[in-house]
Amino acid sequence: MGAQFSIANFLNQVSLGPLSEYLAKRPDLGELRKLVAAGADDQRILAAWQALDPGLRAETEADFEDAEALAEPDHLAVLMEETRARRPSTARQLDGQQRALDKALWLITNDRDFAKDQILPLFLEESFSQKQWHRFPDLPLVAIQRPAAAADALAKSVSAYYQDQTRGQVHREFHIRRSDGTDYFAIYLDDYAAPFVGFTGPEFVRGSQHPAFQVVFAYQPSSGWLDILAPGGLKEHQALAVIFGKAVLGAEITPEPFRPVFVLEPFLNRGFDFRIDVADRIQEVRVQHLRIASTAHTPLEWVTLEASARGAPSEIHDLMARCLKATFFRSRSVVVGRVRIRFTLAPTPQGRTKRFNFDIRQKSHTIKRLPADYRRIAEKYLGRWDLSLDDD
User: Fold this and answer.
1) Where are the beta strands (DSSP E) in 250-333?
2) What is the value of pTM for the model shown?
3) At what angle do helices 73-86 and 372-384 cross, to 10 degrees?
4) E-assigned strand segments in the chain
5) What is the rounded distance in angstroms from the CA atom of residue 366 to the CA atom of residue 185?
6) pLDDT tens digit string along 194-211?
7) How many Å apart are CA 104 and CA 219, to the nearest integer?
């Protein structure tokens, strides 16, 4: 981000009040601080910015970049949600700030540790995009009392697991507790050495480097769900679930290798009842993709159906009727491997219609990639529609 940062754009987007408050706590910024307080023109401010000691400029730029990240629309929604839950008085102060960037910079100025160590890491989920999280149900229900110690123990155990593969030295680990009670443990480890050819500054370099990879655990102590994101497939994730049980919960767990977590066959029913609450402002729910196979054939032969974005909500079932023989759907002969569900929300006061979608497989999902508000809706209706087998 550093190469893309523009102090001119930042100054145009932030109000003078929160900027002056930030600078008032930075006497080391000298002339820049005085010029902003005096309302000097942009050219003089930019000249003072360029004249800063490179270390001071990099430190300040990092704060401003973090403020820009916090001020992005989806991020700001998470920021306000978490702040209202954990810091009600701070949330009231943020409500008094006019612009998104004002709120973000005010938080960095007045509650720096909270902004940088507890809010910014929440956005690590974004880097996971469409990646699949494997879910393991029925873990012991344990309230984690010493999360920092748990994170340290977990990092050491995960590192030992990967070092058998000649990688896995821990570079960083941290714990975050979301306002919904979910405990996130993120661990960054070094990967296999990879060749590197490029430039470090003006110097041409040829050699090798160790990129980092991440392992993330999301544990819900109220339900006993554990979601894992890591390299590899289900077998590796099962091993990591066992490690989590020992290191964090103090329990021996044995994940069932092929037990589904989600039941997807109800979506084959044209009359499936998407029971929704008016308060959630949901305009429509539809199945957009279906990946199905007939168990009458061995090995399974998979067919993927994709409905158009603008067709009728029942289009996926019309496709099945048109494209597949009736014998394909003999009683209990069809298994569903993946479903993509799309939610359409009622238009906002500005007239904008928002949509989001996520994929579900028998043991995994992409729900974690959603912004907080959408993720809550997705989890809520998976339970309501009796799709989560562990919701007894």
Assistant:
1) 282-294, 302-306
2) 0.58
3) 70
4) 133-136, 170-177, 183-190, 194-200, 203-209, 212-220, 225-229, 282-294, 302-306, 334-345, 355-361, 364-365
5) 18
6) 676 776 656 777 766 667
7) 28
